[in-house]
Design goal:
The structure is a single chain. It contains seven helices and no strands. By secondary structure, it is mainly α. The longest helix is centred in the C-terminal third of the chain and has 17 residues. It is globular and about 35 Å long. It starts with 5 loop residues before the first helix and ends with a helix.
Length: about 130
């Protein structure tokens, strides 16, 4: 696994993905197994063990009852795979992440995974894979 270049870690898509992952972790802090399963799904995709439709299916099952999390996952999908949500969050305008929030989050993630660089590196690889598919 390679270390991402400064350009890759400074891209808006990368920062937005990190913010989303942190949001998932916070949302499921009482049920960490859900967060772990989420990371496992991303890792399986990164290793090309599952394709995009299967990722969508698994994420939708995992986040059942949380349509806002499913809808927000759309940002990371190619346009042809984006899903529609019938949840109440559709009527609310989405707030775009602010640069300071993103940078703060990026520093937080780097610190959080300092003791487990493999997990952090796998996540960076997933983001890079996504970015190259766009």
């Amino acid at each position: 696994m390679t270390t991402p270049s400064p350009q890759e870690t400074e891209s808006p898509a990368f920062r937005e993905a990190l913010i989303y992952v942190d949001r998932i972790k916070l949302h499921f802090q009482e049920t960490p197994n859900v967060y772990k399963r989420f990371l496992d799904i991303l890792q399986a995709y990164q290793k090309q063990l599952i394709d995009t439709p299967r990722v969508i299916e698994r994420i939708s099952d995992l986040f059942a009852g949380n349509p806002e999390l499913i809808q927000d996952f759309n940002v990371f999908l190619p346009q042809r795979y984006r899903t529609q949500s019938s949840g109440p969050s559709e009527s609310k305008p989405r707030k775009k992440p602010v640069l300071n929030d993103a940078l703060t989050y990026l520093n937080h993630v780097e610190t959080r995974f300092n003791a487990t660089p493999r997990v952090y590196q796998d996540f960076l690889d997933i983001l890079r894979n996504y970015q190259t598919q766009q």
